[in-house]
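We store amino acids, tokens; thus:
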Amino acid sequence: MTRKFSLISILLICLAGFLVYSNSLNGMFVFDDHSFIENNPAIYKLFNFEAIIKFHPSRPFGTYTFAMDYFLWGLNPFGYHVTNLLIHLAASVLVWWFLTMLLKSPSQKWLSLTAALIFAVHPVHTEAVNYITQRYTSLAGFFYLAAVCCYVRARLFNDDWRFYAASLIAALLGAWTRETLITLPAVLLMTEYYFIEGTKGVSFSKAQVKYFLLLIAVLAVIPLAYSFNVSSIWADKGFSHSHEAEQITAGNYFLTQFRVLAVYIGLLVLPLQQNFEYDFAVSKSFFEPAVFFCFIFLAALIILARLIRRKKPLISFGIFWFFVTISIEGGLIPIPYVINEYRTYLPSVGYCIVLSALVLELIKTPRLAAIVAALFIAGYSNLTFERNKVWQDEIVFWEDVVRKSPHKSRPYDNLAQSYLAAGNSEKAVENLHKALAINPHNAATYTNLGVAYLGLGNNEEALRQFDRALRILSDSGWAWNNRGVVFLNLGNETEAQKSFEEAMKTKEIFLEPRLNLAGIYLRRKDPVKAAELYRQALELYPHDGNSYAELLKISLEQNDLGRAVSVIQQMLSTVDDPALLTAAGSVAASHNLSDVAYKLFAKAIKNSAAGRTTYIELGKFYANHNKFDAAVRVWENGLTKFQDDEFESLIAQAREIEKNLEQ
């Protein structure tokens, strides 16, 4: 294979993947993204390793990539989506590299490219790519493929230890990202058997033995994350998240996975009616018709793969790849969610290999085979592009889930939260009552219903819902916090303070109760206690502009200009909200802190979301320093952008004052 063809192949894979996901980059944070990213203090400091490990002990490297994104992008979802897409494109290129190393015939170079293109554009990956939190899956898939590729490269070049070392590093980072790396040794042995040593048997060199011993030691970090209490993995998992009021055990989870694996295969072949939250009942007997016939189907596939291993090794290998890489989550380890599309990310490599091999095997005319392969790629690309649209808006996203899983309470609950975020309390109440009709025992639903009634101005009903939530879950931080908001509305600061303090005692580390309690201290003329709470809030949430703004006001009221300047400098490095920057600039200017005030205004006006107030205040700042030409330019820009008569009045006043001064 020529270097030119290799470069063209890589560019085609990246271009195809970028084009099909180009409409996903402006998507929002969805579901767990809020708790894993938006409201996760562990990722707000780049080197806060202790907090990162504590947040998710078995996946510290995956979590650390969120911290890197936060360092680069703050809480702008665009940057996180870019990272997810880059990871997926890199994984797609690794699929191509893996196959090009194994397939020696020049005629098979198209198979490698076809398989990688199908992997890059397949719609079953939309969940792993668009759902930022499931970077754990795509990143682990990337490291898994990197470990396999580096191992194969080492084996094909006389046990090159540089590539063995690279494979071990990839395996370690993958093991720190997701537990599925535990199947890596089995896939490496399969690769040896099918493509390197041959089906007559596998013999190991001393270098290979050392490599596998080190690999086993590296992968030991997975059980280490569970303190080697592996038996706990098979313990009962409580209630199913995939069907209302069903218990999950290792036994019924294993039986259910026969049906789930059949669904996964169906989605790989014909990915229609994709769903983020399937309503999937647990199977209780092997002799249920669906379980039994799915078992027969899966067993037949495995037997077929065994029978054709010599004549059709690539197809056989692809089938076994699917079953080996899905085995951990697809049967061996019980998980409350019995089915999730993102779990097919790495196993789908097997399907891409099988499909590409079948096309080239069954269609002997190269041109016709290329047309058929192109049709598959185009069809999958179109489905992916359309599926991405669901992920661009959280209300649209949850409406899609509700439509496909109308008998589950969680989708209604999450749809209601999306309506609350959009300010539509009426729609939120409607969906929350639907959720309670299905599951009347969820504290979060009552909390959300209370928030909805708060939005409607019904404090008494809101309080009733928060108290219901606390009877179910006494340490619900959100229920305690919102209960305090109700008492503030009712003028009862004493009860409000008690509720906010209870919220701060819970395990939930979040911002609102600290800000609410600080507000009470400010009203009581106790700025010292208020400032301490704002500083605590910024320790947890360094991007919170409101806390900086309040600290700035307190510093200036106490005439502590040094601290005020320090607060402003922190704001300049962390806050992007133009309204907050403008307000802080006006306050700073009123206290003759002209240098930092100008910097605040300058940063605010560079933001495309800057409002008319920013233009007005910056112009006034210039005018107050007798820079009338600069003031007029700013106001003229504001007039062009907002078509507001106030700008014309300000321009006229500035020119009149300038004229008078000249006289």
